[in-house]
Design a protein that fits this description.
44% of the residues lie in helices and 26% in strands. With 296 residues, the chain is of the alpha+beta class. It has two domains: 23-153, PCu(A)C copper chaperone (Immunoglobulin-like, Sandwich); 179-295. Strand 1 (28-36) and strand 2 form a beta hairpin. Helix 6 crosses helix 8 (208-244) and helix 8 packs antiparallel against helix 9 (249-280). It is elongated. The relative contact order is 0.12. It binds copper (II) ion. Copper (II) ion binds next to strand 8.
């Protein structure tokens, strides 16, 4: 019996020693860390990885610092009232004994204010700080990502996200029922920045005066834009039907010219929207907006 109790005590000591000695940094395993490649002058990018917490206790990543940019934040994507938005989070929870995926459309490390472009195969140091204050340095690799490839990620989505949302179908310009489908259909080349800015007012740090100005712009131009989107959409459907129904080339081309005129008006309004936005927002806010937009 005596021998047994000595062993038991020894084992107990070993366990408690280990629990005391192992930092969170030592007990997590990082796999497949990578950073989304971005072109020169891109204001921001994101890092992804899988973090396995081998400890039985829950832990968290509480901060991150990358070495190619000015500000590094922990982010998630949330589905808010039909809008996919990035949101800064205080920490990324790491449940005990489980793996947590940082992946496009979900949790990520946001690298804002890039000092250099990210190229393929480039090694980027990122320091992750955990809830016990310990830090782990990892080397993430630059890798191309085709944004919003819902097909590949559908099975891994958490927090109620699905492939459709990843493809931007649920994205809102802050005004319309199914706006992105209309916007993409009517004019894929120009982003609707005002709606996005209003929806992300808190993240961008907009003050009341700025919000009032942006809303005034939307109020003035929103209905007209919606009419144009719907007009283009309806007229193109009509064109398909008329073509199949055997209308003459002259008739079809005349209708097609009308859709082009509407598209041109949409483009001009969206450029005005951007110019207004640059006046209302500070340079820093605009840069942040420009960095949020392609990630949505
Ligand atoms: Cu982000």
């Amino acid at each position: 019996m005596k021998r047994f109790s000595v062993l038991a005590v020894a084992a107990g000591c070993a366990l408690s020693f280990q629990a005391w000695a192992a930092t969170v940094a030592e007990s997590v395993e990082i796999s497949d860390p990578y950073v989304r490649m971005v072109p020169p002058n891109a204001p921001a990018t994101a890092a992804f990885m899988t973090i396995k917490n081998t400890d039985a206790k829950d832990h968290a990543v509480v901060a991150a610092k990358a070495h190619i940019n000015k500000v590094t934040e922990l982010h998630t994507h949330i589905h808010d009232n039909g809008v996919m938005r990035m949101r800064k989070v205080d920490k990324i929870e790491l449940p005990g004994g489980a793996s947590t995926a940082l992946q496009p459309g979900g949790l990520h490390v946001m690298l804002i204010g890039l000092n250099e472009p990210v190229s393929e195969g480039q090694k980027i140091q990122i320091d992750l700080t955990f809830d016990d204050g310990s830090t782990k340095s990892i080397e993430a690799v630059g890798r191309p990502i085709v944004p919003m490839k819902g097909m590949q990620m559908g099975g891994q989505m958490n927090g109620g996200m699905n492939a459709g949302m990843m493809q931007g179908k649920a994205l809102s310009n802050g005004r319309n029922q199914n706006p992105m489908a209309l916007v993409m259909h009517a004019n894929p080349a120009f982003p609707n920045l005002t709606g996005i800015a209003i929806k992300n007012a808190a993240e961008l740090g907009l003050n009341d005066e700025q919000i009032v100005k942006l809303k005034a712009w939307t109020k003035e131009h929103g209905d007209q834009m919606q009419r144009l989107f719907q007009g283009v959409s309806a007229m193109e459907k009509e064109l398909i039907q008329d073509t199949l129904a055997g209308q003459s080339k002259a008739e079809l081309m005349a209708k097609f010219e009308k859709t082009l005129a509407m598209r041109k008006e949409i483009a001009e309004t969206k450029i005005d929207c951007r110019d207004n936005m640059k006046k209302v927002l500070t340079a820093e806010q605009f840069e942040k907006l420009a960095s949020i937009y392609p990630m949505m």
